[in-house]
What we know:
This protein is mostly helical. The protein has helices spanning 15-31, 34-56, 88-123, 126-140, 144-155, 159-185, 189-196, 201-209, 214-237, 249-256, 265-292. The model is unreliable at 1-9, 11-16 and 297-304 (pLDDT under 50).
Amino acid sequence: MLTLSKRQPDPGQPAGSRGWKQAREAFERFAANPAALVSAIVMLVLIVVAFVGPAIAPYDPVKIGTGPRLHPPSGQFLMGTDQFGRDILSRVLYGTRLTLQASLIAVVVAAGIGIPLGLMAGYSGKAVDGVISRFIDILLSFPGILLALIVVAILGTGLGRVQIAVGISLIPAYARLVRGSVMSAKENLYVEAARSGGCSTFRIATRHILPNIFVPLLVLSTTAIGWAIIIATSINFIGLGVHPPTPEWGADLGAARSYLGVAWWPGTFPGLAIVVSILAVNLIGDGLQNALDPRLKGKGAYDR
């Protein structure tokens, strides 16, 4: 189980100074990890592209006949054109926003539901814990992509429904992490002191326990973005997500699979975008974990 690294405070040093010193040390450890630092730069570039992509795209991403059909990469079309003569570079740039948006919203949905469930399961007693744990076990009995497909089948297709479906598939990861962390943290002395001081259960859970499991939650949220990208692009790949001609990495990869034998570029560049983004967020998660809790150096974000 992931835990927060604790240090004995220096009584001669102000609390604010200790906080800034620890933050600076964590940043220095993160920056000393080349893979994590490069991944952070890559992710920053992707975020910038998500905002400014429409402004820098050379062509309209949905316009048919922008160039010859299946034109290979050239000076005019840096990534070539697809089976409809649309510029692939423009579609990749536009698709960055939709793909990152879908994954971020899915993680917010998962955290917004999974964290309260984990808090209630870990702190409210055996009866509530039993009900929530059985619910989480039911969700865990389905692979993430299958659970998301079931939700899409119930709600219907569309970008918004895909975001909800992916978020639901990630709920068990948050609920299990928070539950285990809360059950460990609630036995600490600071919780006993808060309980003796008359703090309510809600205040203890949200003001005393939750901030002390921030590190594992941050690491999980980072790596969960990678899982969300995988699941969301997979749903779009099989045609149950965004509707054509919306530019999206998974949908474009799915549309190009029939042409891979005669043209490698329509599927290669969206696929590379997916691989690079997933690799970047996972390396960032490992780097954050090692920087914020050096005792866990070398362990994966989901190792518990």
